[in-house]
Structures are given as structure tokens and as C-alpha cells.
From TrEMBL, chain A:
Transmembrane segments: none annotated. Residues 110-137 are annotated as: Disordered. It holds the Pfam family VWA_CoxE. This is VWFA domain-containing protein. SUPFAM superfamilies: vWA-like.
From TrEMBL, chain B:
It comes from Rhodovulum iodosum. InterPro entries: AAA+_ATPase, ATPase_dyneun-rel_AAA, CbbQ/NirQ/NorQ/GpvN, P-loop_NTPase. Pfam families: AAA_5 (PF07728). The lineage of its organism: Bacteria, Pseudomonadati, Pseudomonadota, Alphaproteobacteria, Rhodobacterales. Residues 32-198 form the AAA+ ATPase domain. This is MoxR-like ATPase.
Amino acid sequence: MAGVTRFPARAAGPAERVAGFMAHLRMNGLRLGVQETATALEALATVDPTDAGEVRHALRAVCTGNADEAARFDDLFAAYWLNRGRERAQPAGGDSAPTRHQRTPFVTEALSASGQGKGTPDQPEGGEGAAEQQGEGRLVAARIAQLKRTDLREMVSPEDIAEAEATAERIARAIRDRRSRRWRADPHGRRLDLRRIARGAVATGGEPIRLYRRARPERPAHIVALLDVSGSMTVYARVFLAFLKGLVGADLKADAYLFHTRLVRITDALRDPDPLRAVNRLTLMAQGFGGGTKIGGALADFNRFYARARVGGRSVVIVLSDGYDTDPPDRLAAELARLKRRGCRIVWLNPLMGWQGYAPVARGMAAALPHLDHFAAAGTLDALAALEPELARL
Amino acid sequence: MAAWRDLQHDLAEHGYVAGDDLAMALHLSLRLGRPLLLEGAAGVGKTEVAKVLADLQNATLIRLQCYEGLDAGHAIYEWNYQRQLLAIRAAGERGEAGADIEARIFSEDYLLERPLLQAIRQDRPPVLLIDEIDRADEEFEAYLLEILSDFTISIPELGTVHATARPHVILTANGTRDLSDALRRRCLYAHLGYPDRAMELAILQKRHPGLEPHLSGQIVGFVQALRKEDLDKTPGVAETLDFAAAVAGLGMSDLTEDPVALQATLVTLLKTQADRARVPTELAQRLAGKAA
């Protein structure tokens, strides 16, 4: 472990260098405050600061807060202290398990210019002709003709986006059921609240005259949304992204993913308080935006890496996709069945269903149908808003 | 030798093989008096860390198992209502004054200590294990934050209880839900992954010292290969140890020698019907053959 930290001439001392490192981590999206800088210095005082391996382990324990950050930390550390990873003292410990999360090149992200690079979206491959002739998918399909060459983010007006977000928030609030296990004071509750009764009895000479009760309050379901951003869905992607942002914003437990040929978790990016950085992160994650779709494969990844921890009996999984899949349809069916076994409810929102005369002809869609709790149109904002009572009943 | 290496060594002495990451995080958490948050898949030895630490420091282990709906009454303290009601009734018959009764029934005698209160009222610093914190709900996290930041608990009827000894706090989580940033920021963090081959071998030798080197190599290789398969429940270290015990118990000296026995021992590794179906005899044999 020869990786001795070299201080460039401009740094005044270790404290300043550490502060610079914290700023570097912050720039890369780790949430660290002043307190952490102090803790980091304290931690460094207990280890041998000339040993890069020790320093890295110590700083990792202080600066990271979840598995994702811990996995990225080595690269960030090397980039700052060891001249862009030219020297790596030792491989990351315990990293031999398959990568749990898709890692995004955050260092590159920090360097890249602001939110360019989604490129021009592909034209929808499935049913563009139908859209022009029948024009029922009001939200976007009717505008396809003049929007063929427009960038995604200009696709719909800001009002539409805001409305999509608001709709999503309403839906997130509507999906409330499953009672909590926790008891709350409630005058019509089923169970007696002994604590308050005993307290009240003191005032009446030990006679429990006033009976307080408790009940289990309603709890919202946990929403997981998977958005298809493949070629055939690009025209809807902007609105649906706003929809996901609304879902994730309304509910701390909601979880959002994008998929095309692979699956990316975007919950953290959507929650990023800095909108510019959020766009940047999404742009990088969405590389391959507008390509083919592997719904089956994406669901398999979801089942394998995320569902285990994040989907349970209280979850509602919302899939936003048109069902055009390049994977064999039985794969999709098998993965849906596997997901279903976790006890969740699955809702499939299909933008193409808003079109007149659409029947789920896509083979993937046909295979998926038996495993769905609810299958509905989502091509227009009205259709999304109409979902609220339906989803609330699930 | 550096202090954290000593700690790693001591842990190994007590039967726990810790990676550099974990040893350092634990060392810092002891030195800086900060809680340590351990995350990782089920069965990688998160809970075990606390047990071994308690063992190592000769401290009491106080464990709080979290579950959905865990509330202050089960985690911090509760009054013994039945006794209180009886006392009120008895005192009423003796004609005792109300203020006296109240002072008496809200005293230590009627207080039921739950793990968190118990942990801060010890004479010597105990190890406080808050297991599966992600199963408890957000409200409970908020209680916990207050306690973890200043180690005091306020009981309205009794006053504030200050810690007589600061417990070493270890929290474990396996990602049932995201924890709040506030909680993460109070803690040091270490992520435990599945161990690599060398480390798992070391663990196995620590726990089953009697095992033939050839066989233990095979067992570890087999489990490592199995983890790469597409399974619902990936076997953890605990499962490896069970598997080794089963193999040793059946008196096998080589995994490939008896396909039927090997298939039977898989009950220790594969815990769902679908996973059993995914690893038929042929696949198990192929993996075992490669593991040698």
C-alpha cells in the first residue's frame, strides 16, 4: 500500500484537503454536511494517515450512507487523492457480489455540460400511421406530425407537465389501503388504550370512568413505477417522467425505474433537489433512450436486484409500457408471475390503449394480461386522472 | 500494529472474520462513539457482528428487534397498567390522598424497562443491537434519532433519564425500505456483501475447524457458484455454515461422491420451491464438479 497522498502546492494543509474532498463528494451527489467533515477529520486522527488503504476505509465509513454510495466511493476517492485512479492500493473489499445497482459514471457526469445529449427522439415505431389516421391518443399522438423532429423536452407544454405531476400526486394519495400495525388514539377504536385510561383513572379515584380507545389507521400502499422509454414510447416519456416525479414526490416510499434494454433506478435522481443535476443524472441514465425494448429482461433485472427488498404485500407495481417487446413473450409472463408471487398488485398502463380499435395485439401484452390486476389506458392526461378511483379500489 | 487491525484480529479470535471495511468502520464507531449502520443481504453476518462485539468487550448485548408497528411502548418504556390500577384501587380503600397515589404509581416500581431505556441505564457500556431498523416505520426512526443523538430519554411522569453509560450502537438493515437521511447521517456506515472465496473459506475454517481442507474448499466453491445462479433467495454465509454442517454430518468426504446425498443437503441452501426446481441433480453435480 504505497499510495501516499501527495498534496498539491495550492493546498494549505490536511484539513483543507479533506474539506476539498468533501466538496468533491458533494459535487458527485453524496449528501454530506459540515458535521461530516468534522467527523472525517476526527476519524483520520485515529488511523495512520499515510496509509491510503486505511484512509479510504475510514473515510468510506464516515462519508457513505448506502450501498450505492459505498460502491462508488472507491472511484471518487481515487479520482481525488490518487490522481484519477492511476494508483489503486487494493481492490474494493466485499465487492465480489454482482453489482446490485446500475452504476452511472458520476465523475463524467460532473464534468459534462448541462443537460444536453438526449438527442432527437426516434419516431414511434409502432402505430404512428394509426395515430395520424385515428388521432385518439390526444395528449401526444395527435401532435406527432409536427413534432417529429422536436427535442423530447419541448414535447409538451409546461402546463401539461405540471398537470401530469399533480395527477400523479393525486393517484399516489388515492392508493391508500392496508391498515397499519401501529395503534393510534381513536374514539371509535376497537381496542382500549390502557395507558390513557390509567392516567384518567387517577383523577377519578381509581375508577376508570372515561374509556379511551385505539385503532389501526389506514396506511398508503407502496408504489413502484416502471417506465418504458424505448423507441415506441419516446413520445410519452416526458409526460410519464413528470408523472413519476409526481408519484415519487408525493410519497417517500415510492420507487421509480426506467427501462429500455436495461433497467435503471431513478428514484434518487427524481428526488434530487437541484433540478439541473436531476436532468443531468436522468440524461446519463437514459442512454439508450429510444432504442429497443426488453421488457422481460428489464423485469428480470428488477426481480433479481430490487424486488426482493422493495416489493412486498403492500406494494402496487405500475408498469407504463406499450407492451412491444423484443424478448420472447413467455419470458415476460414468467417474470410477471414471479413478481406477482411477492404478493404485490400489478397495474399496467398502456398509452396505446387510448387509441380507437386497439386491442392488446402485441404478443408481449397478450402474454402479460393474465398476471395483471388492472390494465388501463394512459395515453391522455384525462385517462391518467380517470385512474384514480380505479386504483384506489385495488 | 494499527488499532483497527488489532480489532480485526480480536474479532477473528472470537470466531468472526471481518473484512477491512467492516473492521475499520467498527473501530471508528467505537473510537468516535458513533452508531454503526450495517447494510447487506440476509445472512451475511450483520447481527453476528454485534454478538461478537459484546462477547469481545465482555459487555451485555441488548437487542431490539424491529418490526412494523414497533412503538415507544415496546422499544423505550411502558407503565405497568395492571399494577397501577390495582394500586389505585387499594389506596382508595385505605383513603390515601390522590397526590400520594400519583407519585407512587408513576415511580420506578411501576416502570417497565424496554431495550432502549435499559441500554442507557447500564453501569457498563452495553452493546445495543437495533436489528432490521428498516422494518420499523418512520415514526419510530424519529424516536430513535432523538435517543441516538444525546442518549437521553424523557419520561413525562418521571423526568429525563440521562445515560449512565453510552451504549455501542449497531443498527442493521437489509433494504426493506430507504432509511431517512437524518438517520444515515448520525451513523457510520458499512455495507456487507457476500464474502469472496478466500474470506468465506476463512469463515468456514473458523466455524468448522474439523473439516478437511479439500472438502471445505469444495463447499465454498459450490456455494460461490450457486450464488451466481438466478435464485429467488441467494444463500448467505449462515447457509454455507449449515450446508457444511450437513455435509459433515452425513460423513461425506467429497461433494461429487453421492448425488442423492448432495441433493438432500441442498435443503440447507435453497429455501424456496422454485429455487429447488432451478437446481436439479445434474446442475448440482456440475457445480460440485467445478468447485473441486
